[in-house]
Write a structure and sequence with these properties.
The structure is a homodimer. By secondary structure, the first copy, chain A, is α/β, with parallel strands linked by helices. Chain A folds into 2 domains: about 90 residues, Ribosomal protein L30/S12 (60s Ribosomal Protein L30, Chain: A), CATH 3.30.1330.30; about 140 residues, SPOUT methyltransferase, trefoil knot domain (Alpha/beta knot, 3-Layer(aba) Sandwich). In chain A, helix 7 runs parallel beside helix 8. The interface between A and B is large, with 39 and 39 residues.
């Protein structure tokens, strides 16, 4: 059974400060829990309904390092940071970030992205298009925020993350840098590329002007209707689908 | 000043039942309020901070039909269905839905779409690409849910909505119907079209098999990484950007 101290610990992981202290985060929901368990990523706690534990017996054997706790639905919901009831919650350890900037293939650079749903959705997009790295500027929403982990649908398991000064990255890399802007080159007429960095800005303020200056290309999704802008994650998906050459 | 009864009325509009009863809904946030006020759409209540009212004096004159209420920040936040504090909230009247199904140009058909963020984002995508109509099956999230209105960023003002049995629509229309599925024709090799219906399914269950049967085309976004699927709104954006011929 989970002790009060353990419940307190798991709940504390809703806050970035405590996540950083223990280098751990929450991964919730049946599907996401299964994805995590089927890898070798280190897990410290598996908290789930009795029926779920029974059903996933084989997966659990993959993780002898984890403590397993059977829990009732009401208690699980009280620990969860999600609104709807789930059947399983894991505490996983954060992998060490890579030591060097991505220098080949495609990566996504995020400038002060704020919304956890957008961050998670962009991780899922990277995961879909086979983009191996996401570089986050300071002041982005934490990639281990429970809502981000939820929206990324297991993307954390296949995408690498780095927090860094984007100016420094752009000065160091020879990859083409594509800034998503409102008045750039028509995306539909842009050349596809085998590698590059896609630079996406803050939801309401867009990109920091200095970063746009460092970009080698500025691309825009042509607009045919009345909307002022597109959602940041939708724009990321559309640009990836047009620019990445596989 | 807003009376207690008026506060109760505005709060009641968080619920679909009361929205339908009064054929009214909430549009919140500075930007969205300005978009609404700059149209001739009927508004019954304008509730805002004194500074905001002063600043938007000219816009307010567009709407002599509306009652204007000055409010303090704390009270506005307590009425609001959003988490962050805003400076303005409107109560607007729902327009009458069109009497006939869209029969030319592009429309989007949604099969039991559940998430308000996705619905709002899809409305914003339709608005960006100049898609004039969205047809919702029964059991979609209500398009006048405050979170939908927020995420649509004014898209309600330019996109028409219809709730209908999609089978009936598909049997009646001669437009090509493109179902977004996981194992269909490669989107990147699909012919663009000047008109059509893009059919998008429920976030976890996908499309109703009968609807897929009625579709003339089944399209898929090629996958190059490990993700099982893309977010519904992101998929909508990507397909629109590849299929719509302008």
């Amino acid at each position: 059974m989970l002790s009060k101290a353990q419940i307190k610990y798991i709940k504390s992981l809703r806050t970035q400060k405590y996540r950083l202290e223990s280098r751990a985060f929450i991964a919730e929901g049946e599907k996401i829990a299964c994805e995590w368990l089927s890898t070798k990523e280190p897990i410290t706690h598996i908290v789930a309904l009795e029926s779920w534990l029974r059903q996933h017996d084989t997966l659990l054997k993959n993780h002898p390092e984890a403590s397993i706790y059977e829990i009732d639905e009401a208690t699980l919901l009280s620990i969860s940071s999600l609104k709807s009831s789930q059947s399983a919650l894991l505490v996983a350890k954060m992998p060490k970030p890579p030591l060097i900037f991505p220098q080949n293939g495609w990566s996504i650079a995020l400038d002060r992205l704020q919304d956890p749903g957008n961050m998670g959705t962009i991780i899922r997009i990277a995961d879909w298009f086979g983009i191996s790295s996401i570089v986050c500027s300071p002041h982005c929403v934490d990639i281990y925020n429970p809502k981000v982990v939820q929206a990324a649908m297991g993307g954390h398991l296949r995408v690498q993350f780095l927090e860094a000064d984007l100016e420094k990255y752009f000065e160091e890399t020879s990859l083409p840098i594509y800034a998503a802007v409102l008045n750039g080159e028509n995306l539909y007429q842009s050349q596809k590329s085998k590698d590059g960095v896609l630079l996406i800005g803050n939801e309401s303020q867009g990109l920091t002007p200095n970063l746009v200056k460092l970009a080698t290309n500025r691309v825009s999704i042509p607009r045919f209707g009345g909307a002022e802008s597109l959602n940041a994650a939708v724009a990321t998906g559309i640009i990836c689908s047009h620019l990445i050459q596989h």
